[in-house]
Each structure stands twice: as C-alpha cells, then as structure tokens.
Amino acid sequence: MEKEYFSGVEKVNYEGPTSKNPLAFKYYNPEEVIMGKTMKEHCRFAMSYWHTFTYRGNDPFGGTTIYRPWDESEDAMEIAIERVHAAFEFMDKMQIPFFCFHDVDVAPRGNTLAQTNERLDRIVAVIKEEMERTGIKCLWGTTNAFGDDKFVHGAGTSCNATVFAYAAAQIKKALEITKELGGENYVFWGGREGYETLLNTDTGLELDNLARLMQMAVDYAKEIGFDGQFLIEPKPKEPTKHQYDFDTATVLAFLRKYNLQDYFKLNIEANHATLAQHTFQHELNQCRINGVLGSVDANQGDPMLGWDTDQFPTNVYDTTLAMYEILLAGGLTKGGLNFDSKVRRASFEESDLFYSYIAGMDTFARGLKVAAKLIEDRVFEDFKERRYASYSEGLGKEIVDGKVGFKELEAYVLENGVTKNTSGRQELLESLLNQYIMETR
Ligand code: XLS
Ligand code: CA
Ligand code: CA
Fold first, then answer.
1. Alpha-carbon distance 295 to 141, whole Å?
2. What is the pLDDT of residues 34-50, one digit of tens each?
3. DSSP-based three-state secondary structure for 125
4. Residue of 71, 103, 105, 310 marked catalytic
5. Cα separation of 103 and 117, whole Å?
6. How many angstroms separate the CA atoms of 297 and 275, rounded?
7. What is the largest CA-CA distance in the chain?
8. φ/ψ (deg, to 5) at 98
9. Going by CA atoms, what residue is nearest to atom 8 of ligand 1?
10. Helices (H), 311-349
11. What are 324-354's pLDDT values in tens digits?
12. Distance separating the N- and C-terminal Cα atoms of the chain
C-alpha cells in the first residue's frame, strides 16, 4: 500500500443541495441522467496535473506558499513518483475520470534530451500502473515548449532553427507518451508563439514555420498510429504581447490557410476567451458553428484583473451558457472539461484542493442541468425561429437558396418596400434565463 496523502478525506460523494458537508457534491451527481446521458458522461471532468500538483503559489511578487507532503524528498525523480501516487489518490477520491498533463509536469527536465526522455519513460510506467489500478484515463497530453530559457524567442516560431528542432523532438516524445497512456487528444497551446515587437519579427516566416511544425506532428502521429484528436488552444496574449493563436476566428483562418483544418479542433479556455474580450460562450459558439469544438479548459478570470488568473469556475451564468453551447454542439465527444484552474496562493492547504474542485464540478453540473432544461423547453430556439422566420419563406428563402441577386432584390424593394422590424427582447430573454437558473430543479 502506497502512502496515503489525503487521509482526512474519504471518497467525495453526491449528497444533494441541502447538504452542509463541505466534502460532498451538492449538484454533481455522476449517475443522474440528463438528456439521455449521465452527468459523468456529459462532463468528462479532468484534472490539470500542473496547477493541481506542481503549482507552489509563486507569483511575480512572491515565492512559494504551498508546501506539499509529496514534494519533500531531496531527489527530483522521487518527488515525481510520489506526485503520481498523490495525484491518482486525489482523482480517485474526487471521482475525476481524466487527467491532462505537460511532459515537464510529470518528470523533471534532465540535462540532455536523452536524460529527459529516459525520465519520462520511468514516470510513464508508474502512471500506467496507477491508471490500471484506478481506471482513470488520459484526456490529453501536451508539451511545455515555453518555460525553458531556450524558448526565449518561441519554439515553432523561434528565429533559431535549432530551437525549432528541439521543439520538434520534444513534441515527438510527448506524442509517443500520450499514445502510450491512451490519451484521447493532444493539445498545442502556443506558449511563446507570438511577438513582443514587429521591429524584429518576421511574422510571415514565423507563421509558416508554426504550420510546418504542426504538419510534422500530423505526419508523425499517422506514422506511429496515434489516433487522438489534435487541438489548438487559442489565447490572445500572455506571455507574449500578441499570441498568434489569438482566438477561435484567428485559429480557423490559420488552419484553413495552411490546409490543416481536417486535423485540428479547438480547446477553448474560459479565461483566454475573456482575455480576448470575448465571452466564454462566444468562443464555444464560434467553435460550434464551425464544427471544431474539441475540448474545454474550465476556469474563469477576474473581471477586475486583466490577466490569466486561472480561477476555479464558480459563475453559474457562465457555466450555464457554456453547457448550452456544448449540448447544442452535440456534447464533448472526445473532449472534456479540464480544470485548468489553480487554487489562490493563500489557499495553500491540501483540503483547498478538494473544496476548489468540488466548487468547479458543482458549478458545471448545475450549468448542465439548467442548459438542458433551456434546450428541452426551446426557450431561445423558439424565439430565434420566430426572429428569423422571414428567411424560411418568400423572399428570404430565395436569398438563402441563392436564387436572387442585387437586381432582383432592388426590384423587390422598389415594389414592396421594407416590413416593420420587431423588438429583439433582450431583457425579457435575460430574465427568462435568470428564472431557469434559479428555478430549475
Ligand atoms: C496557459 C495555458 C496552458 C495550456 C496547456 O495559459 O492555459 O496551461 O492549457 O499548455
Ligand atoms: Ca489552458
Ligand atoms: Ca490559462
């Protein structure tokens, strides 16, 4: 029996909205069926390895505030192994079915690529054992090609071709281990793929190179038989002032320009959406209408702070509208709701990990339930159908069917004029949304 790290906590179970137990779910009831699927199947919750098991409270103004019992050894590999055991104990107790990881989260970088890879192999073996023991699966893997100093000018967009090569080698290995762990997706988040000033940057070459790197990943995945879904995660800024994968629309244009659209979907993070001055719902909506919704990084920013705070999602309005888009898109399929969220640095006790995940899971579960009811009752669908009714018959239908051009439209208006507009009813719809959020049982 391995050491127990969270001995004060039994399995976290559903106890319902009247429970006062802080270590119980109030809304997330994994087996409850909604629109033909269980909550567990809808949500596909995942734990982020980095924020949950390697974050130590550091911020630009201060150092470590979080000291974990699994981090105590002098030996970095021993710590890494203990972390795996702690992580699986945590997920098991929290009923979290998936995890997501960067290569460097699970094994410390070695002095050479060969040593790093050898360390990864040792840790992957331990992770596999734990996966078998618990039944927990890998939602996605990724590469950290932004933290190390060699990536100062980017990875795939570095001005230094040998750094490009290193990034390629690192992604190659990350793909191999993600395959080994049965990962259902592989994420590209463009860590330092962006620029600080155009005075020294050849954006044309950098974007061409980024596409080349992605094409190589697609080719290599085919070669090794990795059939996970590739995902790009948009973010407008941070760490660079302008990230190339700004938002969904920008990523779509990139994929289409370089003919990569058949191989990639998107991983939408709430906090990145708001950094781009979009709502979380907007980004999910754009993915839905373009058929590219891949997965979701569940968190929230703070409207008072203009940076990526990665807080646990507790805003029911946002999770309701997010789940609304996800349900309309046909669900998460291979994706999941990955809590790319971290506890505040003052929430440094182990129990805070449980409270924060419970908060996030309950908030999404509640959002799911309200969204399903909104869709079942066709609250917005019926309204939209009426709002756009002029396109289902007569002139509007001819526009939609491509049967008329400028001349016919001019002739129509000269003869008939324009019909009266009707109200958009925003406030009425907003109060209906409130009513569903407050009254859905
Ligand atoms: C950083 C990103 C990162 C990706 C994975 O802002 O959210 O954590 O999800 O590299
Ligand atoms: Ca993320
Ligand atoms: Ca983030």
1. 13
2. 999 999 999 999 999 99
3. helix
4. 105
5. 9
6. 14
7. 85
8. -135, 160
9. 340
10. 316-328
11. 999 999 999 999 999 999 999 999 999 999 9
12. 42
